Amino acid sequence: MKLILAQEVEGLGAPGEIVEVKDGYGRNYLVPRGLAIGWTRGAEKQIQSIKRARDARAIQGKEHASEVKNQLEQLGVTLNVKAGETGRLFGSVTPADIAAAIKAAGGPLVEKRAITIGSPIKTTGKHQVSVQLHSDVAATVRLEVQAV
């Protein structure tokens, strides 16, 4: 059975790769869990365009990652959230929220998977989060969480 991987599967491949697996494994495990989709020419073309778009916005090399790190560390990111009178949030801040706040603050586009939050952010105030830009380069972003 020929499939296109939608997510990384250990021992099989990375997203966008076309793999040949046994019918039962594909039909009973990969497809129902959303790890793969059936292969067609149209799906293959769609995956190719997604790969091109991902490569265009991906960070190329260590030098580029260092430039992005400097941009992020100089950026002041403010995130407005709903909070109670004591400054406790209704929920917590997610990496997707932080990525959107970075973009809104005029920063570069950052993948939410690259953002690491040390401990859950559940209060207003100043916090620091880490963004892994390259295997050797990580940036620390200052985040101010404000109540709305």
From TrEMBL:
PROSITE patterns per UniProt: RIBOSOMAL_L9 (PS00651)
GO cellular component terms listed in the entry, alphabetical order: ribosome
Pfam family, one: Ribosomal_L9_C
Keyword Ribonucleoprotein belongs to the record: yes
Location of the Ribosomal protein L9 domain: 13-40
Keyword Transport attached: no
Protein keywords: Ribonucleoprotein, Ribosomal protein, RNA-binding, rRNA-binding
Record-linked InterPro entries: Ribosomal_bL9, Ribosomal_bL9/RNase_H1_N, Ribosomal_bL9_bac/chp, Ribosomal_bL9_C, Ribosomal_bL9_C_sf, Ribosomal_bL9_N, Ribosomal_bL9_N_sf
Function per UniProt: Binds to the 23S rRNA.
Similarity comment: Belongs to the bacterial ribosomal protein bL9 family.
Protein name per its UniProtKB record: Large ribosomal subunit protein bL9
Annotated gene: rplI
